[in-house]
Amino acid sequence: SFVDGYDVSLSYKDWMTLTYFHNKIEDDILYDNGYYNISTDKKIKGFEMSAKSPLFLERFILKANYTHLIDTKTPLYNRAKDELNCWLEYLHDTSTIVTLNSSYIGDRFSLQTYPEERKYKTGNYTIWNLNLQKRYNDKLSIALHLKNFFDKEYQSVYGYNQYGRNFNFKLDYLF
Q: Any residues with CB less than 8 A from the CB of 48 and at least 6 apart, and which?
């Protein structure tokens, strides 16, 4: 694949950014029971908006970003037209952060070519996650992640279910 494009952004402090992007993809790679190149060029245009609140109630930060793809002349398989991500961070102290985040994935289609060419919808779902990060000192930190805590069934690629509710623990120690 080769991508040629540009983007234009407007920002206000660290609080808000609005970006328009326009990319041309040559020889895009698509997966359908194996990888292959699509010989037609694709154009992906859209905008992204991100925002971050200043610290409020002395301990909270709210963040969000939204991406919207503008209609294109060729189908964009496995790419959602709309995506929204939100985070609420609670800063207990300088070394402990609790984050609640949500991701919405809008309509997205996969291409399957067997037995005939068809479109399959995989998008339009919301996932919720909860994270705890604690740094004890310069060498030791832990993280706990509860992913998909409402146990939503979804597929990011047609035919491949994603994990249900799952829990991860991470311990970092630097020598």
A: 17, 18, 19, 21, 65, 66, 67, 68
In the predicted model, what is the mean pLDDT of residues 125-146? 96
What is the C-alpha to C-alpha distance for residues 79 and 49, in angstroms, rounded to an integer? 17
The two structure tokens encoding residue 145: 């992640």
Nearest in space to 2 (alpha carbons), one of 24, 21, 19, 35: 24
Does pLDDT of 82 surpass 90? yes
CA distances from 97 to 56, 58, 61, 170 (A): 15, 13, 11, 15
Contact 63, 53 (CB under 8 A): yes
Task: Please report how many Cα atoms fall inside a 13 Å half-sphere around the Cα of residue 75, on the Cβ side.
Answer: 14
The answer to whether 81 touches 47, Cβ cutoff 8 Å, is no
Burial classification of residue 39, based on how many CB atoms lie within 10 Å of its CB (0-12 exposed, 13-18 middle, 19 or more buried): exposed
Instruction: Give the N- to C-terminal CA distance of the chain in Å, as an integer.
Output: 40
pLDDT tier for residue 60 given thresholds of 50, 70 and 90:
very high
CA-CA distance, 2 to 31, in Å (whole number)? 17
More confident residue, 123 or 31: 123
**pTM to 2 decimals?**
0.80
| Residue whose tokens read 């905008």 | 47
